[in-house]
Design goal:
Helix content is 54%, strand content 7%. The chain is of the alpha+beta class and 549 residues long. Strand 11 and strand 12 form a beta hairpin. The longest helix is centred in the middle third of the chain and has 32 residues, at 214-245.
């Protein structure tokens, strides 16, 4: 098992080698979301060191602030990576998190497979398929809370232990389940909700298939469930109370419905051959024909093995749910209603993205495919060759493009330690461009690099409305327009009055124009608005605004 973990880590490091050449100056993934999570990884150690509550911040979306339990602030990973963050910075910590997330997810997939399969090689294949599946590889572009997908295989192992094998004391198993669920809550609430949903469906299906065994198992299952709830509550009660009863609570759905879903063709065809309503990060449904052949063959050959049939049915159910409330075919939306439409009516589930269910779905694919690999290993030479060739073709079909995307994490010298940002009064409000999270999360990366010295009216965070990023305002429209169109907006009397009112409302004392597409237009606008040329410091332009306060 240790050897498998070592190999998974080697594969993960090799996959992200373009970033690991310079782990402090680059980030695994796309230009936007990784910088958001860098901010989170640095924020928790910063606040705990000061003795502050890390679940709330007004350093983003000032002055109202942000309830970080309504955002994926990754509290548990930030705690674990605190030594890395302290020694090397949050950028390196982020790269460690993504790399370790894939490797550990693969290893836990391996551990789950060992519950059912006695071939270590087949279990290694299961871990490889799960941890390096298109679902997790796609999320590695910028969503570490989904890349750290340890909870689904843990749930499989504990569910099997409590309901089937029953060698562990149900009190112990329940306590482990509750703690694991609470830590998942503090890592990524969405994956916890989805895993609980899938587990509930799985238990119901298992009870339906084995009705005669339900009554004798009720005391064991009830004991484990009660202990799990209590142990979960001991850890999660305060964070959940803060989420639902603390400041800046968010109501309603925070995501667009019927957008981030699996396309029907995506299971069999590569993403470059079809259209999606969502984006690349949420496109993890591709299984490919070779693995689909092995999956179906395993269901046929293992039709008398209960765990294979249950896993197969659950994988199919997950795939159907991942299609969302309406059927999407090659990016075209059908009026046909699908089961997710009912699931979305459950509390909070309307904000979940159906496509992300394939993170769990891939665990089912991995286990079922590994089952036929185990059978082939014990079979004839011809059978081994045929299965090996098909598996190799399947792995080649889903193998990610190399080098994996990497983005610069370079910070203007102004914001770096010992930079000119040290002249800024601690806690003062600074407006930084690019302003809107629709454009980038650069300002959050720079704020983290400056050790959270100043507050900002911007930030990529959900707030009541719900809004993602700064609340809509004329100021936001003006700055976003200049960044998008690269043309200066004239400072008319009306524009001046409205922008001045926004700056005063936000209590801005300093404006900093950083690198962005419309930087020249933005600098010209602020120069005309303030009535003076900026001070050029460390790669940015700076204006003080004493007259507005």
């Amino acid at each position: 098992m240790k050897r498998a973990l070592f190999i998974y880590f080697l594969i993960a490091v090799a996959l992200f080698s373009s970033t690991w050449i310079d782990p402090a100056g680059s980030l695994i993934g796309t230009p936007k979301d990784p910088k958001l999570f860098v901010w989170y990884l640095g924020w928790l150690p910063h606040e705990l060191t000061l003795g502050h509550n890390p679940l709330f911040t007004n350093y983003l979306s000032y002055p109202s602030g942000v309830n970080l339990m309504w955002n994926t602030s990754m509290i548990f990973p930030a705690l674990l990576l605190w030594p890395v963050t302290g020694a090397f910075g949050p950028v390196v910590a982020y790269n460690v998190l993504i790399t370790a997330g894939l490797a550990l997810s693969a290893w836990f997939g391996f551990v789950a497979a060992r519950r059912f399969i006695d071939s270590e090689l087949a279990c290694f294949a299961a871990g490889l398929l799960y941890g390096f599946s298109p679902a997790l590889i796609a999320q590695a572009l910028g969503h570490p809370h989904l890349v750290v997908a340890l909870f689904p295989p843990i749930a499989v192992v504990l569910g099997h232990e409590i309901l089937v094998r029953r060698r562990m004391n149900p009190v112990v198993a329940g306590a482990i389940a509750g703690v694991a669920a609470a830590l998942q809550l503090l890592t990524g609430e969405e994956l916890l909700a989805m895993t609980v949903l899938v587990a509930g469906i799985g238990v119901a299906l298992l009870a339906l298939l084995h009705r005669a065994q339900v009554r004798p198992l009720l005391p064991i299952a009830a004991t484990a469930a009660v202990v799990a709830i209590v142990s979960f509550a001991l850890i999660a009660a305060i964070p959940l109370s803060f989420q639902f009863f603390g400041p800046q609570t968010v109501s309603g759905n925070v995501q667009q419905p019927d957008v981030y879903v699996s396309d029907l063709l995506a299971f069999a065809l590569p993403s470059n051959l079809i259209h999606f309503t969502g984006n690349t990060t949420e496109n993890g449904a591709y299984i490919g024909l070779p693995l689909l052949v092995l999956f179906i063959a395993s269901l046929v050959i293992g039709r008398k093995q209960g765990w294979i049939q249950l896993t197969g049915w659950m994988t199919l159910i997950i795939a159907v749910l991942s299609l969302g409330p309406h059927l999407h075919v090659n990016g075209n939306v059908s009026p046909l209603w699908l089961p997710w439409a009912l699931v979305a009516k459950l509390p909070l589930m309307g904000s979940a993205l159906p496509a992300r269910l394939m993170v769990i779905g891939w665990l089912g694919v991995a286990l079922v495919v590994a089952a036929i690999v185990a059978v082939a290993i014990k079979g004839s030479r011809r059978w081994r060759i045929a299965t090996g060739v098909t598996l190799t073709a399947g792995l080649a079909a889903i193998f990610p493009s190399v080098p994996f995307p990497s983005v610069s994490a370079t910070v203007p010298a102004y914001f770096r330690p010992a930079g000119d940002v040290e002249k800024v009064a601690p806690g003062s409000v600074v407006l930084i461009t690019p302003f809107s999270s629709k454009q980038s999360t650069d300002a959050m990366l720079w704020q983290a690099a400056a050790n959270y010295r100043f507050r900002m009216p911007e930030g990529d965070a959900f707030t009541p409305g719900p809004y993602l990023g700064p609340h809509p305002s004329v100021l936001e429209k003006v700055l976003d327009s200049m960044d998008a169109n690269r043309q200066q907006i004239k400072v008319t009397p009306d524009v001046r009055a409205i922008v001045a009112a926004d700056l005063q409302r936000l209590q801005v004392t300093l404006i900093v124009a950083g690198p962005s597409p419309g930087r020249a237009a933005i600098v010209a606008f602020w120069t005309e608005f303030v009535g003076s040329t900026p001070v050029e410091e460390g790669g940015v332009e700076v204006w003080e605004l004493p007259k507005l306060h």
